[in-house]
Specification:
174 residues; Rossmann fold; 9 helices; 49% helix
């Protein structure tokens, strides 16, 4: 099998999971193996500058849809409503399903980002802690697991840091 054929299922990769699960970390490392820059959905969803100002939802959806039409991409984010936009063209779905306490520890270790206030940082921690409790929310476990289970193409669900590293090693060995 040629290297191109081995990478075929990795043409258009979507990574989803809770905040702090390691989506950005994994995307950065996969980008080296796949030779493409990762797209971080936080950068698409939020306006540059002060933390917490969302861009127009219709514009964001259209930008993500247009991006999904390209031949190769690597997109990661917590926003199920945006992952759902790209799923029809996704060739590999990666679901990072780590325990909330590990996600919270990761967020605390990385610290505040994008000019977050102490208050907004603690709100993020609280939001991440309720991942499995949220209902009718595109960024919940409920939504992510439904998308994962219904996804018809190649997919992988990783439940620990060890599984994430092992998956990355397998991709790097291709």
């Amino acid at each position: 099998m040629t290297k191109d054929k081995e990478f075929e299922h990795l043409r258009r990769v979507a990574i989803m999971g809770n905040g702090g699960s390691g989506k950005t970390w994994l995307a950065r490392r996969l980008s080296l193996a796949l030779d493409r820059a990762p797209v971080h959905l936080d950068d698409v969803h939020w306006q540059p500058g002060p933390h917490g100002i969302a861009r127009d939802k219709a514009i964001v959806i259209e930008e993500v849809r247009q991006l999904s039409l390209t031949s190769r991409w690597l997109i990661e984010g917590v926003y199920g409503w945006l992952i759902n936009v790209i799923l029809p063209r996704t060739t590999m779905l990666v679901f990072l399903d780590l325990p909330e306490d590990e996600c919270i520890a990761s967020i605390r270790a990385r610290g505040k980002q994008r000019g977050e206030s102490d208050e907004s940082f603690e709100e993020l921690i609280d939001w991440v802690s309720k991942y499995r409790e949220r209902r009718n929310n595109w960024s919940s476990f409920e939504s992510h697991i439904r998308m994962f289970e219904e996804f018809p193409n190649e997919k992988v669900r990783l439940g620990s840091r060890t599984e994430i590293i092992e998956y990355l090693d397998r991709v790097n060995d291709l």
